[in-house]
Design goal:
There is one protein chain. The chain contains three helices and five strands. It is an alpha/beta fold. The strands form two sheets. It has a three-stranded parallel sheet with strand order 1-2-3, with helices on one face. A two-stranded antiparallel sheet has the order 4-5. It is globular.
């Protein structure tokens, strides 16, 4: 869960892509943008620009209704980790640690 204006979100965007690569097909990453650069509801253009800026291949969705707010209560970015049975195993992973994520889902 992130906002395009968020400095730490920008710094960490490439780490998610690396996690997908390191996961060897075992990791699915889905990013949810809640606000664009102007703190407004993100558009498809905003999502495409984010993916292009950081050379991302994983899905990025807009969350215009802020459905992920309960998870982002501590701020942006927020990483929610699910295991293979889709159970939440970590709901506020910060700072980001891809090795830790791989251990959590193993």
């Amino acid at each position: 869960v992130f906002a395009a204006w968020c400095g730490p979100c920008r710094e960490n965007a490439p780490h998610g892509e690396q996690l997908v690569e390191d996961g060897n097909g075992e990791v699915v990453l889905l990013a949810a943008m809640q606000q664009n650069e102007l703190s407004r509801t993100p558009t498809g253009e905003d999502l495409n620009l984010w993916a292009s800026d950081f050379e991302l291949t994983h899905p990025i969705l807009a969350d215009p209704n802020n459905t992920q707010d309960p998870y982002a209560a501590t701020g942006y970015p927020t990483y929610i980790v699910l295991d293979r049975e889709l159970r939440i195993v970590n709901s506020d992973l910060w700072p980001f640690d891809d090795s830790f994520v791989l251990e959590l889902i193993d």
